[in-house]
Specification:
The structure is a single chain. This protein is of the alpha/beta class and 274 residues long. Helices cover 37% and strands 19% of the residues. It contains nine helices and twelve strands. A hairpin with a 2-residue loop joins strand 5 and strand 6. It starts with a strand and ends with a helix. The structure holds NADP nicotinamide-adenine-dinucleotide phosphate. The site of NADP nicotinamide-adenine-dinucleotide phosphate has 24 residues, from helix 5 and helix 8.
Amino acid sequence: MKVYGIIGFPLGHTMSPTLHNWGFDECGITAEYKTWPTTPEALPAFMERFRNERIGGLSITIPHKQAVIPMVDRLTKRAERVGAVNTLWWDNDVLMGDNTDVAGVVHPVRSRGKIPASALVLGAGGAARAAVAACRELKIPDVLIANRTRAKAESIATDFGINVVDWSGKEHTTPELLINSTPLGMSGDLENLRPWQGEYHPNCLVFDLVYNPLETKLLQKAASAGCETIQGIEMFLHQGLEQFRLWTKQELDSKEARTLLLEKLALSRNSPAK
Ligand code: NAP
């Protein structure tokens, strides 16, 4: 049986096993997707095991997305641009590092049919790098980034050739696409917070990368102002479908996959352990 899985630390709740194990069943592939909590110190040993056991593919999450780069044979152009890897796959005997988080942002925006003329990315962590790379791939002409710690936004801006706007001054802009890649709005202490207090462009599309809860305070407010919105679950779904494609060359039904993830999310929100 082929084995796939995810490494990260701490791994906590991850919906990746739900998606990929369902996918293997759907496609009649005899394979299993596992979770391997892996500390930074244990990463080199895990990667040795990965090669020795010829594990079929790997999802990579925090804190390994950059640390793993020297341990792969080749990066895709996309991963090189982002400077982070969330997927390992084999191209014959070559271990490839890719970044499907970018597809997770590109696909939901592109499927709206109209590419926005301007974008503002809020936050400057790993998800923000993928979001900015996605804006580039979508060929959005005018892309801005704002972050609480300005220096981190400047570093991304330099890498991608975009401009920075101050966190305190960002509400003076009116982007056609607003992407939240901060944890503001996430279930727990941050749930009632919004990263944006400003007005919305009349055609504004608001994409919150936070997916728990599904309807964040940001999305609720944007929808009531008449904006189109995209939930963070769409990013999770499309980065996962792209991983599955890289590993198996098979296409999963995105509607069915979404339903499955929504059920899983509802269960985890209602679970007394959370
Ligand atoms: P990260 O690397 O830790 O970056 C978090 C960013 O948010 C940093 O720029 C940080 O600013 C900013 N931030 C944190 N707390 C803040 C606050 N109270 N006020 C203002 N800014 C704050 O995290 P990440 O990996 O980029 O992930 C960010 C979020 O994206 C996650 O919380 C997650 O919900 C979401 N995400 C979703 C998916 C998906 O599949 N939908 C995938 C990845 C991530 P400083 O630089 O000032 O610290």
